[in-house]
Amino acid sequence: MSDSLLARHKAVLPDWLSLYYEEPIEIVSGSGRHVTDADGNTYLDFFAGILTNAIGYDIDEISDAVRRQVDTGVLHTSTLYLIRQQVELAERIAELSGLRNPKVFFTNSGTEANETALMLATQKRRSNQVLALRNSYHGRAFATLAVTGNRGWSATSLSPLKVSYVHGGYRYRSPFSQLSDADYIAACVDDLREVIETTTAGDVACMIAEPIQGVGGFATPPDGLLGAFAEVLDEYGILLISDEVQTGWGRTGEHFWGIQAHGVTPDAMTFAKGLGNGLAIGGLVAEAELIDDIGANSISTFGGNPISTGGAHAALEYLLEHDLQGNAAKLGAQLLQGLRAHECALIGDVRGKGLMIGVELVVPGGKQPAPEAAARVMELAKQRGLLIGKGGLHGNVLRLAPPMTLTESEAAHALRILTETVSLAEQELFSS
Regarding beta strands 268-271 and 282-287, do their DSSP bridges make them parallel or antiparallel, or are they unpaired? Predict the structure, then answer.
């Protein structure tokens, strides 16, 4: 890590742009699932640029697709012109969406994708009322902050939306946590209906929900919860938007889209992150009657540009051809089993699906959040050559989301480091 680079970062970038680690690192190269920092240290990457480098590093098929476009001399044209790569990628995503009559719109990020989905839904329903889940995170722009149910990420109370929050996404600390799956879902459905009846004017535009709450610490509700919600939403004509920014593209292992675990087809799905394997791309796929229903001019200057869509299409085909969804299911099960079998009082909950795993750390003997332990485990893991993420409402959840090309030996290696460092952090912080 270069002290001068850190000083320059602090001098010209916002104070709220936080960095991981007591001594932040600069990643300068990567191959497969490994990255190397400016000091020559190599790490097994178990966070993948916040789930973005879904295929890994230095993938020929993706790099070649980008080079082919660069070699044309055209880096950008805009949506005012036909873009072949944009059309081809949209066709593929529409085919994979499971929607009845899908159309696709490309953006530059998940935040922008969610902003677009909220704009479409509120315009369609002529209402600015929106339902969201507690502990949610949907982006850092004006409307997406409004539907973020996590104080740590809520930079302002100002909002273009009237938002009502419901229970369900974060089970571990829910007042319904001790209930069975069926009773938990029933209690959350009752809460949803009461929220609609008591906190809204009735004409709600949509509900936006993450099938697994990413920034919220990979909080994982019971399968079927959002499907049960959808039955209530249908009674009121409320649209359902599934935020697949982190759960899309097979990362959960059992399904290609996270919402599929809930037995419902949404009106729209937003996406980003893993699609581009590091390229800036996001978007949404929605029913044509929703996505076409704008009575004003609109374009996207950079959304769907030929470099991002060409590279993303190559990444998507690589993911499908190599059955990375199946790999996520297999190795995710290996990691979940190993973490759940590890006896350590610091671990309060192990949850998630596929290669999207959260480990919530608590003060031994109860459920009090232990954010200092999460920070310590991250440092200890880094010292042993493993990079992991952190999140959750209280900053006490280890987030594990490696590239989906992870190998069995790499998963076993990471598991050894994780169990070792969690136990060591417990000894350091809580042994008397």
Answer: antiparallel
At residue 237, the 3 state secondary structure works out as coil
List, in order, residues 6 or more apart from 12 with CB less than 8 Å away.
Answer: none
- Give the model confidence (pLDDT) of 225-266 as tens digits: 999 999 999 999 999 999 999 999 999 999 999 999 999 999
**Please, what's the b/e burial string for 48-61 (b: 16 or more CB within 10 A of its CB; e: otherwise)?**
bbbbbbbbbbebee
Residue where the block lists tokens 């315009």: 123
The secondary structure element, H or E, covering residue 318 is helix 306-321
Backbone angles phi, psi at 370, to 5 degrees: -125, 70
pLDDT value of residue 431: 84
> Which residues lie below 8 Å from residue 195, measured CB to CB, with a gap of 6+?
131, 164, 165, 166
Give CA–CA dist 429/322, Å, rounded.
43
| Nearest to 214, CA basis, from 384, 352, 26 | 352
Contact 53, 29 (CB under 8 A): no
Token pair 């993938």: residue: 59
Side-chain-side CA neighbours of 318 within 13 Å: the count stands at 25
- Write out the DSSP string of 262-314: GT---SEEEE-GGGGTTS--EEEEEEHHHHT---S----SSTT-HHHHHHHHH
Q: Tell me how long the chain is.
A: 432
**CA torsion 372→375→379→380, rounded to 10°?**
60
Sequence-distant (≥ 6) Cβ neighbours of residue 364 within 8 angstroms: 345, 346, 426, 430
Q: State which residues of the chain have pLDDT below 50.
A: 1
Question: What does the DSSP 8-state code read for residue 323?
Answer: T
Residues 26-40 pLDDT 10s = 999 999 999 999 999
3: CB partners within 8 A, 6+ apart: none
Task: Supply the pTM of this predicted model.
Answer: 0.97
Helix then strand then coil, in percent of the chain rounded to 5, is 40, 20, 40
